[in-house]
Design brief:
Blueprint (H helix, E strand, L loop, with lengths): L5 H8 L2 E3 L4 E3 L10 E4 L2 E4 H10 L9 E4 L12 E4 L1 H19 L9 H12 L4 H8 L3 H8 L8
The structure holds zinc ion (ZN).
Length: 156
């Protein structure tokens, strides 16, 4: 396992802009909008590099998540980041989805979008309970079950 070395550090420090609050990544992003950088032919999340550089505790890249306290996927400010488990990561996303749905849909209708269904499946694969998913998306548990068993939205 390779440690973060000076070369990686100097490349890392050239790839973001420090503003008052967030440090915004200016370089490549993955499909989810998170900063990425290549190290030895591997694609590594910029948030992981940030935590490794600033905490001096390099961790195996794949077994943990870097969680944001701000809501900015491009942010690599180590004071906005902490290590967490996959499960905490899923939990955080669930809370954010719940909030954005509360503010976004005042009419209380429970129509799901394609993106919702993708997210529901992913959250479920990360051990989020059906009940919590139903609460978050304001649908019946049976709707969630049907999605998971491909009786609904089987094309997703
Ligand atoms: Zn931030």
């Amino acid at each position: 396992m390779r440690l973060i070395d000076d070369d990686v550090k100097s490349r890392f420090f050239r790839k973001f802009t420090i503003t008052d609050d967030c440090w915004t990544w200016n370089a490549a992003l993955n499909s989810h909008g998170y900063g990425i950088m290549r190290i030895d032919g591997k694609t590594v999340l910029a948030t992981h590099i940030s935590l490794a550089v600033f905490e001096f505790q390099y961790k195996e890249y794949d077994w943990q998540c870097a969680l944001h306290s701000c809501d900015n996927t491009k942010c690599v400010n180590p004071s906005h980041l902490r290590w967490g488990t996959q499960k905490e990561n899923a939990r955080d996303r669930l809370d954010r989805n719940r909030q954005s749905r509360m503010y976004g849909e005042s009419n209380g209708r429970s129509k799901l979008t394609y993106d919702d269904v993708v997210e529901i499946k992913r959250l479920h694969s990360e051990d989020v309970k059906v009940k919590d998913l139903a609460d978050c998306y304001n649908v019946n548990k049976s709707t969630i079950y049907k999605i998971l068993h491909r009786e609904l939205w089987s094309e997703v």
